[in-house]
Amino acid sequence: MKKIFTLAIILSLISCSNDDETIITVDTSDFNVTIDENPLINQEIGNVQGTTNQGNVTFSILEQTPNGAFSVNASTGKLTVVDETLFDFETNPVITGTIKVSNGEISGNSFVKITLNDIEESVFHGDITLTTQEEIDAFGANNYITIDGNFTIDEDQNIHNIVFTDKLSSITTINGVFKIHNMFNWLDVPGFENITSVGGIVITDNWGILDIHSLSNIVNISGPITITNNGSLGSFCGIRPLLQSGTFSGTYTVSDNFYNPTQQDIIDGNCE
Q: Which domains does the chain have, with CATH numbers?
């Protein structure tokens, strides 16, 4: 069970003045949170609290360990991941820092403590969409085996630079939907020969894909098969083992491709 402990230390610093001047106070409290290791860059961590009885407060970092792990918004107190590589449980199970909350010369300090959950690093938790070759290479460097969510390749239409997916070859299981969309350069769906189980298959609006042979090792599926609007796609033999296995019981939608076989066509070998 995740436990988040909040230590409320209220700091009130009062400026010394004569009886006719307003006494300015600044209040803040310590910030404690627990998050999963390996967050995304620019991911929001939470907000340091800060109030004043007159005007506005500003937020700034006095120190943090390790240095450069997070940033703070000067106006809102929002903490954001800067260097995601530092949020590694094995290296830095706890990340700390001190945030100064100020109203002019009056200020108080909030102690920040970010505790990391150790997660199974062969599993990517959540949905992921990759749009460029650079994103594919960076994601593939993690050598994930399981995607616990939807996995989408949706090519950036202003770049069209996705060619290689060999760095994604460690993936064997996608618990969500496996989607291929807007691909310009591919003739097949390469690099996914090791995938054996998916939550669904969606292949739509691709320019050059001729066949889907590399999906031939998928034998388990828990969701739909949707293959539409792929004008050059004429071979469906890659999903024949899946349909022959008898594990598919979802919705089958195949239309507006170069060839549009029925499930039985594919099972019978009329797959291209």
A: 26-117 (2.60.40.60), 123-267 (3.80.20.20)
